[in-house]
Design a protein that fits this description.
The protein contains 12 helices and 19 strands. It has 343 residues and is of the alpha+beta class. It has 3 domains: 118 residues, 2-Layer Sandwich (Nucleotidyltransferase, domain 5); 84 residues, ATPase, nucleotide binding domain (Nucleotidyltransferase, domain 5, 2-Layer Sandwich), CATH 3.30.420; 69 residues, Alpha-Beta Complex (Actin, Chain A, domain 4), CATH 3.90.640. It has a 6-stranded mixed sheet with strand order 3-2-1-9-10-19, sandwiched between helices. Helix 3 packs across helix 4 and helix 6 crosses helix 7.
Amino acid sequence: MGLITWLKNKLFCDLAIDLGTTNTLVYLKGKGIIVQEPSMVVINRDTGKVEAVGKRAKEMLGKTPDSVLVIKPMRDGVIADFEVAEKMLDFFIKKSKRNRGFFVRPRIVIGIPTGITQVEKRAVKDIAIRTKASEVYLVQQSVSAAVGADLPISEPTGIMIVDIGGGTTDIAVISLNGIVFSHSIRIAGNEMDEAIIQYLKKKYNLLIGERSAEHVKMQIGSAFPLDEPITMEVKGRDLKEGIPKTIVLDDQELREALEDVVSSIINAIRVSLEKTPPELSADIIDRGIILTGGGALLKNINKRIHDETQLPVFITDDPLTTVVLGAGKMLDNLDLLKRMSLE
């Protein structure tokens, strides 16, 4: 390794961050994605000390004593707990800067939801600056996802991208490096988990935790009938008897549990299609709708959206990483980054 290359590796540490409600991803320029962990922090109530962050924190969810608190600092795509969010981001950035010297001040690009307020934008930027960033750029997640999916955003053609995250569903129509129309709802993957918890509580008097609900969603959740029915055992606590209980759940019941959330997402897509300029609507008919984000992994959601809109629907290669990969690509194209970043 030459001296110049060694110095670059030590001194330059530009980062792209997808600060999500459910997961935080960090992309290091020249290295790729180096952090992909849950947006969770475990705090000791008595000392205020951080006990765990990310994967280790999620493993403790629902299993901690009273003296320890598991906190999700992000809610609906925005910062709900400023102090804890700063500690979490600081942890991930230090992890990214490992072996590069703590005097390094990285340039940071952060993907944010379309519908957040100026105050919320300022909060995100302030946290990044407090973690010793030299420059901070905020980019809308839908734009970043389009770049990450290698879509031709600079062409005079309409592209509709739907990013179904943990806290928000962001919909954008992009043309000529700009957002022509955008729509955001604070309904996404977390609401699916909560809908499953409430459904089992109401139908079976069974109480399950967030981790279990997420697991059930991933295993048998769907938005449109499957080719082959599937079932799984779900374990929880009987609300009447107060003792552990196991039931067998099938995919049709899960669709019923998720229907309101899925319908809300589809209605948001319909609103966006109705408000898209006619010329760009014609492009969307040809190009279809692009799905990304963790919610795009819900089985057959693409078929359900196609059934409701009669438009082609495509899922990006790796929906969980599309936003951070797009933000990472912008680090290599400073002109595009400055044009697409928000003030």
